[in-house]
Model the fold of this input.
Amino acid sequence: MVVYKKSFADHVFEIFNTLLMILLMVITAYPFLYVLFASLSDPNKFIAHSGILMYPLDTTLASFKAVMNNPNIWIGYKNTIFIVGVGTSINLLMTCVGAYFLSRTGPMLKKPIMFLITITMFVDGGLIPNYILVRDLNLYNTIWALIIPGAISTYNMIIMRTMFQSIPASLEESARIDGAGEWTILFKLILTLSIPTIAVIGLFYAVGPWNSWFSANIYLRDKQKFPLQLVLRNIIIQNDVDEMTMGSSFGNSYAMSFTIKYATVIVATVPILVLYPWIQKYFVKGVMIGSLKG
Amino acid sequence: MAPKKTFFQRLIFDLNRYKYLYIFFALPVVIYYVVFKYVPLYGLQIAFKDYKITKEFWECAWVGFKHFEKFFTGMYFTRTVGNTLIISFLNLIFGFPAPIVFALLLNEVQNQKFKKVVQTVTYLPHFVSLVVICGLIVSFSAKDGLFNTIIAWFGGTKNDLLMSKAAFRPIYILSGIWAGFGWGSIIYLSALAGVDQEQYEAAYIDGAKRFQRMIYITLPGILPTIVIKLIMEIGSMMSVGSEKILLLYSPLTYEVADVVSTYVYRKGLEDNDYSYSTAVGLFNSVINIILLTFANTVSRRLTDTSLW
Done:
């Protein structure tokens, strides 16, 4: 091991590099802190204030109360949890089943089926043909329109197949000699050995519907069915805050509309921020798995 | 010697031997792909027809390239294709190198704990939904928002930035870099970890300075990763983040912000002009595939690195 001796230029570089990294952290994190401070501020003080915020102005939970009293937020949460829960289960089941078939070496039709699947990574019907399909299947304005068309991600299925293929064939042979059938081999052997990969892929699937607003925007009409992100879009981007500012104790509903939007962002982002320190490393791992595949 | 079995006989034998695999494993997946991937491809035919929502595909008359001609000769062709290419190029020039430069600099940080903290903080925007990020952009760009406060410090005048034609693209590109540079660096950091340490030691003994080591050892070490990323980036040039643009643009900024995919959305789902919208979308996909193939071929010739 060579011991590096640092020159004067090295020290200067390191100081500047460290300062730059700190600056980048501030730039990344400050907008979120600003949102937090703004959401806790007195609406009238906040609107009169100009400049950056370093702490909440006259801390009050008024904006949060207004958000909590908005039923749309909770409807959104309920729908999103359903979509994420049911959707991810279907995703994982279909992906494992498909990946298992594609990891077999015997069947003659495996190669043609693999080809049929790979093609779809490069060509796509596009917006309108997919829309017509959803309508023709009577999925329009049902929550299933957000779940079933995305049941399998080809990319994830190929990663899963690669994982399955890396399991030594000898393990499977001995299981077969002991009389195990396809389902036993899949569930008792292959899935048990692949749990870490499955967890990562499950997380990747779950993030999709959690963050998605676009499909809901084109496929859903009833407000009762809107997932959280679409509710959020209506509040923070299309400024649909009248319901919440009405009858506010601050009188100034214009001022209130600002802090309410920030409080909405906090309410909708808190679950992720709480989970973030724990799930971060699995996502990083997922990126690595994906890059190894190529 | 037994006569050689025909293909058909072998297929029957194979189907019978693996019947459980085919019925329970292959069939559900094949059905999914046929219904949700191939039926929409079949539906692309409406780009060459006059499709009405009340009719079936086969009841509609063929009209050839009518919808394509309408798009190519209309005013929206230059605007949407131009905006798509300009925004993609800006993204390629400013957005693409950002995570690479960040990974190279982060790699020079010696203190492992500090490095972890920097990573944890800069990955954060990746975990926040697009709607929330766009919500922040909208609020901060408003006349009394955070961006304008900062602009006013530097003596600028306040105005609603998302309504301004000059500000839309910079906001789009910069916010993209802000949200993506940390997360985008992961793939380069993992490539950096694979660079042979002995090369650094040898270079150090030969008197190579830090900057020289970065240029002559680190950069070539991650070049294959950069090339793969670049191919994928070029291959998706025509599909620039339409969801983000849909969330941020408004009729006031259509002139600089309207890209092909947002136009497809408006024509198809707001004006219900299904056939025309499908034709424009199909044109876009074809260009995308051509670009991807082109980038892949060039890269295979020049660097031996390619997607296929």
Q: What stands out?
A: The domain at 72-303 of chain B is CATH 1.10.3720.10 (MetI-like fold).
